[in-house]
Amino acid sequence: MPKVPDAENDILMCILEIVRLSLANLGIGLLPFTFVPLTIAGALRCFGWVKERIQGCRWVNMGIWIALAVTNGVKIAEEVKEGTGQRKGTKYPESDEITDVSVMIGVYAALMVLEIWIP
């Protein structure tokens, strides 16, 4: 089975965002639930017996990547709308969070493209 690259990077970026928000006492909200679709997508991609039982798992994975990218895009849009100067003195400024979330969106886009090209 070919391994989809960059999935580990996205998990690490999610962990980084959770840790930095926690250290800045800003709250993590529903971010831990991001690991659920990542786990589902990994299982659909890596385990052959799952692929055999679920028809169209490639389309499910593409839907997961699109949904996560759109969700994070909305998150960035909301943060930009609020302004980036509100948390200047904290351990996790908004500019850093926007950069981290943008990297995650790029990883989701790369995973979606790889989902199309790698059978």
Tell me what you see in this structure.
The protein is 71% helix and 0% strand. By secondary structure, the chain is mainly alpha-helical. α1 runs antiparallel to α5 (94-117) and α4 packs antiparallel against α5.
| Pattern of helices and strands | HHHHH
Oligomer: single chain
Label the overall shape: elongated
- State mean pLDDT (0 to 100 scale): 81
> How is the main sheet built?
none
Unreliable runs: none
Task: Work out the helix count.
Answer: 5
Termini separation (Å)? 9 Å
Range of strand content: under 5%
Number of strands: 0
What class would the helix/strand composition place it in?
A: mainly alpha
How many whole angstroms does the radius of gyration measure?
Answer: 16 Å
| Helix-residue proportion | over 70%
Q: Mind sketching the topology for me?
A:
Layout: H1 7-23, H2 35-46, H3 48-53, H4 57-82, H5 94-117
Helix pairs in contact: 1-5, 2-4, 4-5
Salient structural properties:
119 residues; mainly alpha; 71% helix; elongated
Describe the structure concisely for a colleague:
The chain has five helices and no strands. The protein is an all-alpha fold and 119 residues long.
